[in-house]
Amino acid sequence: MLRHLSDSIDALQRQLADIDAYLMRAMQPYAWAHSLLQTIPGIDETAAALILIEIDDDMARFGAPERLACWAALSPGNHESAGKRKSGRTRHGNNAIRYILCECANAARMTKSTLPWRCPVLFQCYRPSS
Prior knowledge:
It is a single chain. The chain is mainly α. It has a domain at 30-78 and 88-123. The protein contains six helices and two strands. It has helices spanning 2-26, 31-37, 45-55, 65-71, 95-110, 115-118; strands spanning 80-81, 84-85. A two-stranded antiparallel ribbon has the order 1-2. The protein is extended, with a radius of gyration of 19 Å.
C-alpha cells in the first residue's frame, strides 16, 4: 500500500515538473517581462508566469495601475453619503489574478528585504526579526 502511494506521489511530481517545464517554455517570448516581474519581492518564476498569463505584458489596456487593481478587484469600494461610510466591500473581479497577487503579497511580507521600510502600511502586523 505504501509503495503504491509512493509511486503515485512520484508520478504526480513528474507531471508537475512537466507542467512547469511547459510553462517556462511558453514564457520564452515574454522573457523580459518574466524576469522583470521576478525582481519584485514575493514573485517567483511560477507566479510571474501566471501573472503574465492573466494580465499579459501590454499594460496600455489598463491605462493606470488603479484600473488594474479595480479589474483584479483588489481595491475596496468607497461609498460615503452624508458623512456615513456605507459598504466598502471589494467587488467581484478576476479571482485568479486576485489569488496570485495576494499570495505574492503574503510571500513578500515574509521576506527579509527592504520592502517593509518602503511600504510600511503593508507590514503593520509583521515586523521582521533582526
